[in-house]
Amino acid sequence: MTGVTRDQLKRYRDVIAMWMSRFDTCSIADHTGLPESLVVRWTANFQDLKNGGAA
Questions:
Q1: CB-based burial of residue 46 (10 Å sphere; 0-12 exposed, 13-18 middle, 19+ buried)?
Q2: How much is the pTM?
Q3: Arithmetic mean of pLDDT, 25-48
Protein backbone atom coordinates (compact mmCIF):
# COMPACT_ATOMS: atom_id res chain seq x y z
CA MET A 1 0.00 0.00 0.00
CA THR A 2 1.36 3.40 -0.91
CA GLY A 3 1.10 6.48 1.25
CA VAL A 4 -1.33 9.30 0.73
CA THR A 5 0.08 12.23 -1.21
CA ARG A 6 -0.21 15.81 -0.04
CA ASP A 7 -2.49 16.59 -3.00
CA GLN A 8 -4.79 13.71 -2.07
CA LEU A 9 -4.86 14.77 1.56
CA LYS A 10 -6.01 18.24 0.51
CA ARG A 11 -9.21 16.58 -0.77
CA TYR A 12 -10.09 15.00 2.62
CA ARG A 13 -12.50 17.77 3.56
CA ASP A 14 -14.28 17.51 0.20
CA VAL A 15 -14.61 13.73 0.58
CA ILE A 16 -16.14 13.97 4.05
CA ALA A 17 -18.46 16.83 3.07
CA MET A 18 -19.74 14.86 0.07
CA TRP A 19 -20.16 11.71 2.15
CA MET A 20 -22.14 13.63 4.80
CA SER A 21 -24.32 14.94 1.95
CA ARG A 22 -25.17 11.29 1.13
CA PHE A 23 -22.97 10.78 -1.93
CA ASP A 24 -21.78 7.18 -2.26
CA THR A 25 -18.09 6.37 -2.28
CA CYS A 26 -18.05 5.56 -5.99
CA SER A 27 -19.52 8.97 -6.87
CA ILE A 28 -17.10 10.72 -4.53
CA ALA A 29 -14.14 8.91 -6.09
CA ASP A 30 -15.32 9.81 -9.60
CA HIS A 31 -15.87 13.46 -8.69
CA THR A 32 -12.60 13.95 -6.79
CA GLY A 33 -10.38 11.74 -8.93
CA LEU A 34 -9.26 9.79 -5.85
CA PRO A 35 -9.11 6.00 -5.68
CA GLU A 36 -12.32 4.57 -4.25
CA SER A 37 -10.30 2.48 -1.78
CA LEU A 38 -8.94 5.71 -0.27
CA VAL A 39 -12.40 7.29 -0.12
CA VAL A 40 -13.75 4.19 1.64
CA ARG A 41 -10.93 4.25 4.21
CA TRP A 42 -11.41 7.94 4.91
CA THR A 43 -15.18 7.70 5.30
CA ALA A 44 -14.90 4.60 7.52
CA ASN A 45 -12.30 6.33 9.68
CA PHE A 46 -14.43 9.46 9.94
CA GLN A 47 -17.48 7.38 10.93
CA ASP A 48 -15.43 5.59 13.59
CA LEU A 49 -14.17 8.89 15.01
CA LYS A 50 -17.67 10.35 14.91
CA ASN A 51 -18.96 7.40 16.93
CA GLY A 52 -16.39 7.76 19.66
CA GLY A 53 -13.42 5.89 18.25
CA ALA A 54 -12.46 2.25 18.22
CA ALA A 55 -13.49 0.08 21.11
A1: middle
A2: 0.87
A3: 97
